[in-house]
Every structure is written in C-alpha cells, then in structure tokens.
Amino acid sequence: MLMFTFVTKNSSSRHASRLLTCGGPCTVSIMSVFMDLNLIQNQTEDRSGLKSLIETAAHLGFSTVAVNYVFEPTTKKKQNIPSPTPINELIDQLPIVQGRSRPIRVLNRLTIVMSDSSHYRPTAAEYRRFDLLAVYPTTEKLFHAACMTYDVDIICISVTEKLPFFFKRAPVNGAIERGVAFEVSYSAAIRDATMRRYTIANAIALVDTCKGKNVIVSSAAEKRLELRGPHDAANLSLLFGLSDADAKEAVSSTCRSVVLHAERRKSAGGIIHTTKTSPEETPPTPDDRDAPAAKRAKPLETE
Amino acid sequence: MVRIKSRHLLCEINVTDRNCLLLLDDRAVLAAVKDTVLRMHGDYGAARCSIGFSVKYLNAHTGIVFLRFPKNCYKLLWSALPFITSIESRGHKISCFFNCLHVGGTIRTCQKFLIRYNTQQLHRMLPKCKNEEEKQEIRQAILNCSLLRGKKEAFEEASESEEDEEE
Q1: Chain B contact for A209, CB < 8 A?
Q2: Are A79 and A129 within 8 A, CB to CB?
Q3: Residue B142 to residue B147: CA distance in whole angstroms
Q4: What is the pLDDT of residues B96-153, one digit of tens each?
Q5: pTM
Q6: Which of A8, A254, B41, B84 is least surrounded by CB atoms within 10 angstroms?
Q7: Under an 8 A CB cutoff, do A293 and B116 touch?
Q8: CB neighbour list of residue B145: distance below 8 Å, 6 or more residues apart
C-alpha cells in the first residue's frame, strides 16, 4: 500500500493542511488542496474556451484541474485515440490559484466510453500519454471488469440516463480495495431538471453501496458558467448522500489519492518512483506566503 | 433567554460581462434564490426559507452579496445555490453563478473576511496591470486599506472604499 503513505513536505504549514481522520485503510489523511478532475475539452470550439475555463477554476481556488478527452469507440470503424495537447501550447502562462502563490496544475485525462470489452486495451501505448485514465462502463459485466481487473484510476457513473444496472457490493468493494475511485459529475444536473433527477438518484445508489468511500465529485464543465466553487461543490454533494467529512474529501483528498494512484500506475506499481526536483520548482515555503484569506490576520511564523 | 442563531453566507456573483452586475438589486437576488429553493426542495424548502432568510448586503460593483439563513437549515438552502444559473432583473436575464467564499455566524466576521479577501484581490491585480497609471492607482488602494487596518473604524466604510477602487 505505497500510495496511502502521504508525506507532507513541510509539516510546519499548519494552516495549509488540516488533519482529519477517515476510516478504512488510510487512517490519517491530509486535507489537501482542492481539485477538479474533469474539465471537458470542447472539440468544436477553439482553445480560448478552455483557457477561460482554467482561469475561472484558478479564480475559484482549484489547485489542480484535469482536461478530459472523451473517447467513444464504435464498432463500425476504427478510430484513433485523441492525443492530448500539451498545456504549454494552450496557455502561455498559467494563472495563479486563488489563495495560494503558485500557478494552477493542469493534467490530461482520457475517458473511454465502453460498450464492449474490446474497447479497453490494457497495453495501448496511447494511454501512456495521459496522466489519468478513466472508463465509463455501460453494462454490468463491464462495470464488474472495470472494478476488479482494469488498470484505471476513475470509473465514471452515468449522470444523464437512468441507471443501466444496479451497483453490487462485491465489485464496488473490490474497487475500493484497489484504490479506484468513482466519479459523479454535477454540471448535467445544473443544465437540466430531468438530468438532475438521474444524477441524484444514481449518485445516491452509488453512495449507498460504497458508503461514501472513494467518491470524487467533479464538474464536467464545458463553459465557464458551469463551474462551481470547491465549497459549493462539497455542499452540493450532501444532496448525493455523502456525509459532511466525505463530501469535503470528495473534492480534496480523494482526488489527491486518485492522482497518486495514477502516478503509481505509470511507474511500475510504485516500486520505483522518481521525482524530478529542481530548485525553482520547489520554493522553500510556498503555502505560507499567500495563505487563503481569513477573517483575522494570522501572525507570521518565526522560525 | 437563548437568542436565534443564523448563518451568513458571503457569496460572489460571477458573470462573464462585468457591466451586467450593475443591473442587480437585492430584490432580484432574493427572488432568484427563493425560486431556486422552491425548484430544488419543493414546498418544504420554500417554507424553510420564508422565515429568517434575507439579503443583507449587495454590492453591485463587485458582485458581493451577504445572504442570511437560519442556522438549523442553512446547509439545505446552501445546496440550492449551485443551481442558480441566471438572475432576472429589470427585464434582463443575467446568466451568472454564485461562489460561496465564507460562512460566518455574524456579519462582522464576514466583513473582516471580505476586507482581507479584497486586499488579496488587489495584490493579485497588481502584476496584471497594463500601464503605469493603473499600477499607481492600485498601489494607492493597497496603501489606503493597509493604513485603515490599524484603526478600529467602521468596517462597512473600509470595505466599501476598497471595492470602489477595485472596479
């Protein structure tokens, strides 16, 4: 269980990281920064749309976002898996996150919409170009396989249609044990009233089965007006049946463990893991200099 | 005697075009929130927000709004806020979204938070300036609000003056 050993770099930054306990295999997890792991890359629109999305996410206080490329294979003809556009081509300068003094981190994510088991190829070289890998199973058999065997990070839950199958305890527990997270996205619920019913019903069915563990809440926003702030998203997920602590983790520390899981998947099961360290990337005390606004001025730390 | 407790939500209204914000008034915001609560939670929610819910403060220049909710059901009513997509005001439909910045027990803590938040916004704005005049203006604004902090003056005025500079 290498991915559950969270190490904080500077334990002196008390305001930035609050301790909170959660049940399960990870006894103590760090309340980390907010993440939104699903921003839809709109193919028809030019890149200014994505740019304004990322800027809005930084303004709202998300420290990490993932640009989602949806790949829907059909049986008729062979399609190419989209290749991610490097983020420095999209935006020349990444915006600074609200309340922190560092630029926003942008990841690339691939979502495979699966209706047949041949759609997921475990050893495809195209998958290696993405930071995160997600599947969207549409049948019960594929859901079972995705939970138990597929080497992915996120399993998406349908939010736009009636639940195509019932969630069973066995595959869901298997996925939790392997560290695979389930994703509920809320922007369909904002757009339309019937979608809202499907989203809430499916999310409650999932949360009942997994008891609130390993659930992440993401936006799936295409326009900047569909994004919501991290506190709003956490409070919104109370409607999905999550408890207070689980709702907060759904936008922060579960997302962090998903990102760590993705790194472990890419680096030979986490046995060997190298990190690139360069002096300009790790400033000495990055969090303390520009802490989030509080109602009272915090005294400066003297060390 | 136990007093009635409430929660104050400090929200920021985000729009694409900042000029639309000037069309807002507190009655429009109140109507939008009540309408959304009715849509999301039905008659129960509407009844819950009929007593003890009010819009305490609205700044149309910056889009800052203080909402007051009863303490025992503020989470229920807050969960309806993300579903607001537009506000109907003076015949115009302003598409926007609410971003909750702070939840406080009193207005005073919200004001304190807002002052710090707006100061931070000024600091963030400084590197983005294009010409020297804007830069000088923002420097002056930061200086003004850092001088004010030492005195225990009415917070209302302090926050107002900062926000005007930000515009």
Answers
A1: no
A2: no
A3: 9
A4: 888 888 888 888 888 888 888 888 888 887 777 778 888 888 888 888 877 765 555 4
A5: 0.76
A6: A8
A7: yes
A8: B115, B118, B119, B122, B158, B161, B162
Lowest mean pLDDT among A134-138, A230-234, B2-6, B132-136: B132-136
Chain B CB contacts of A225 under 8 Å are 14, 16, 85, 95-97
Average pLDDT over residues B27-46: 88
Nearest chain A Cα to B149, which residue?
Answer: A297
What residues does each domain of chain A span? 34-73+93-267
Distance of residue A96 Cα from the nearest chain B Cα, in angstroms: 8
Is CATH 3.20.20.140 what the domain over A34-73+93-267 is classified as, yes or no? yes
pLDDT tens sequence across A91-115: 777 777 777 777 888 888 888 888 8
The answer to whether the CB atoms of B116 and A99 lie below 8 A apart is no
Rounded CA-CA distance B147/B39 in Å is: 46
Quote the minimal CA–CA distance from B27 to chain A in Å.
22
Phi, psi for residue A251 in degrees, rounded to 5: -105, -5
- CA distance linking residue B86 with residue B108, whole number of Å: 29
Position B84, amino acid? I
Q: Give yes or no for a contact between A113 and A138, defined as CB atoms under 8 angstroms apart.
A: yes
Say yes or no for a CB contact (<8 Å) between A225 and B113. no
Q: Do A225 and B85 touch (CB under 8 A)?
A: yes
A293–B117: do the CB atoms touch at under 8 Å? yes
**ipTM of the complex in this document:** 0.79
Q: Is A239 on the interface with B (CB under 8 A)?
A: yes
Mean pLDDT of chain A: 74
DSSP bridge pairs for A265: none
Q: Compare CB distances from A236 to B82, B95, B103 and report the shortest one's residue.
A: B82
Residues in chain A: 303
Whether the predicted pLDDT of B5 surpasses 80 = yes
The C-alpha atoms of residue A109 and residue A7 are separated, in whole angstroms, by 25
A228 interface with B at CB cutoff 8 Å: yes
CA Rg value for chain A? 19
SS3 A196: helix
pLDDT given for residue B141 in this prediction = 82
The closest alpha carbon to A98, from A66, A54, A50, A38, belongs to A54
- Token code pair at residue A66: 């993932």
> Which residues make beta-bridge pairs with A111?
A70, A134
- Would you say A259 and A130 are in contact if contact means Cβ atoms under 8 Å apart? no
Question: Strand, helix or coil at A274?
Answer: coil
